[in-house]
Design goal:
The structure holds two protein chains of two kinds. By secondary structure, chain A is mostly helical. Chain A contains nine helices and no strands. Chain B is globular, with a radius of gyration of 22 Å. Chain B is α/β, with parallel strands linked by helices. Chains A and B meet through helix 1, helix 2, helix 6, helix 7 and helix 9 of A and helix 1, helix 2, helix 8 and helix 11 of B.
């Protein structure tokens, strides 16, 4: 086992877990995926360790694992316990309101289609460029932009749609 | 609201989601913790892979071989008694892909008899049916009533097997066959040899002839394929036995840390009865394993399509000999599947490393 595998895990594990959690909206699924991926990565470390950015490679493995059919059934079960508000207050001065807005946004992101959510997380959490996102998702840059624009559109439309779960 | 504000909100929301991540130290401990253990193979056994392996009754003894397990049995422990274990391979839903009745002697030697899933048997409370319908039927009925389908399935299958064999089942382990996809990937592929190329859209098998390394989906397809094989289910049993031997070889060759990880992967796909002390069980397993298929009759038509007739009396007589204390060598009277690649085959011979299979 090359020593730098251990080093990689030590340095990147936390970030991978956070990324996977943001991606899956399910910390246990995220843990499973990351553990599985790191186990497989260890097998292939001679090759992965030699690429320019191993983190990118492993992140791609995590993303693929999430997007792959084997996980689909588990991932469909999205927690929807967040409280949904009807519309957003124009003011953001109140931290409690801001907090509620954020949780509502979390809930809306959690029900986006998987590829759109992945693209969103990569751009807004990992600060990846469109080219990097395209590489990780295995699609064209144009497709990345379309995933993101559709996700943003959905999130914006939903904002103005009165929620039926309002009490 | 401007996009900029929306984007800021998205960033915050995603960051808040990411903050829910489990503590990385827990995961780190999972990944690394086992490296310093004194008995990695015993751990591996205890945490599940042993039972998975036993589930098809081959891996365990091979894996435990290297760990010299017998010498580690606590001399103060009460004397071990023989146990009978029902091993169930599930295809991910409620279909039993393989059913194995294994007897683990007081000396730790394993004798494992495969019960073909298409055997036409008497299912208590239901009537005649294929062996694999026992689990599925009970599972479905229980789920419809909001009960635990797996528990009901195991119970029904256990009663069916007990009624057929006259052998009382002490413990069970059920394994999701998908485990073998993950495991084969984790060990970097499992070497098998095929007599001829094989394609089957039902299982997804697309395999070429000759020796090859299988992992992931193709490994699973190899284990699942029944259609397009000369002897259907029986050829599949031989495939499973061959595959497991090859997998066991890779597992044994893995370093201890790897093995612990493999065990964790396996444990997620495994379910055993709550009363079973796996640690004790694993500690006394020995490398001695004998495998066989119970005696079978003719192919007959049943309400559920073609099935294999089984004579309970013949099965009981066979198992009495096969499971007898101190029994060794090739079993007699069981069903033998012809192994085309070898000239030296004899009835009851179990597949060996490197055998080419159908």
């Amino acid at each position: 086992m090359p020593a730098d595998y251990d080093q990689f895990v030590t340095e990147r594990l936390d970030r991978l877990l956070r990324y996977a959690t943001a991606l899956t909206c399910d910390k246990h699924l995220a843990q499973d995926i990351v553990q599985d991926v790191l186990l497989r990565a260890r097998q292939k470390w001679a090759r992965i360790g030699a690429v320019d950015v191993p983190y990118l490679y492993v992140k791609r493995m995590v993303t693929n694992e999430y997007l792959s059919w084997r996980r689909r059934r588990a991932a469909r079960d999205v927690s929807s316990t967040h409280v949904v508000l009807d519309d957003l207050a124009p003011s953001v001065a109140d931290p409690a309101v801001r907090h509620a807005e954020r949780d509502e946004m979390r809930a809306r992101i959690a029900v986006l289609p998987r590829k759109q959510r992945a693209a969103l997380v990569l751009r807004y959490y990992e600060d990846s460029t469109d080219a990097e996102i395209a590489e990780i998702l295995g699609c064209a840059e144009g497709t990345v932009r379309s995933h993101i624009s559709r996700a943003l559109h959905t999130l914006r439309v939903n904002e103005n749609t009165p929620s039926e779960v309002l009490r | 609201m401007t996009d900029t504000r929306q984007e800021a909100l998205i960033r915050e929301a995603i960051a808040a989601e990411a903050d829910q991540a489990v503590d990385h130290r827990t995961v780190l401990a999972n990944l690394h913790g086992a490296r310093s253990r004194r008995r990695p193979l015993a751990l591996f056994a205890a945490t599940g892979l042993t039972a998975v392996a036993a589930a098809v009754a081959v891996i365990v003894p091979l894996a435990v071989d290297r760990s010299a397990a017998p010498s580690q049995v606590d001399p103060a422990a009460p004397p071990a008694t023989a146990q009978t274990v029902l091993l169930i391979g599930l295809d991910g839903s409620a279909n039993t892909d393989s059913v194995v009745l294994a007897r683990v002697g007081a000396d730790g030697a394993v004798s494992a008899a495969s019960l073909p899933r298409d055997s036409l048997v008497d299912i208590p409370g239901v009537g005649q049916g294929k062996l694999n319908s026992a689990y599925a039927r009970a599972h479905q009925a229980a789920e419809a009533e909001g009960r635990d389908g797996d528990e009901a399935g195991v119970e029904s299958l256990t009663r069916t097997v007990e009624a057929l064999t006259g052998v009382e089942v002490d413990h069970y382990a059920s394994v999701d066959m998908a485990a073998f996809s993950t495991l084969s990937e984790a060990v970097g592929g499992v070497e098998v040899c095929l007599k001829r190329a094989s394609r089957d859209p039902l299982s997804g098998a697309d395999l070429r002839a000759g020796p090859q390394s299988l992992s992931g989906a193709q490994a699973l397809a190899f284990l699942r394929q029944r259609h397009g094989l000369e002897n259907g289910e029986l050829d599949r049993i031989v495939r499973q036995q061959t595959f497991l031997r090859a997998l066991a070889k890779k597992v044994v060759a893995s370093d201890p840390a790897q093995v612990a990880d493999l065990a964790r992967v396996a444990a997620r796909h495994l379910r055993v009865d709550p009363g079973w002390n796996l640690v004790e069980f694993a500690a006394r397993l020995t490398p001695t394993v004998r495998t066989a298929i119970v005696p079978l009759g003719e192919v007959v038509d049943s309400e559920q399509g073609q099935a294999l007739s089984v004579d309970p009396a013949a099965v009981r007589e066979f198992l009495a000999g096969f499971f007898a204390d101190g029994a060794t060598g090739a079993p007699t009277g069981g069903f033998s599947v012809p192994l085309p690649a070898t000239e030296t085959q004899k009835p009851g011979r179990t597949p060996q490393d490197g055998d080419c299979v159908r």
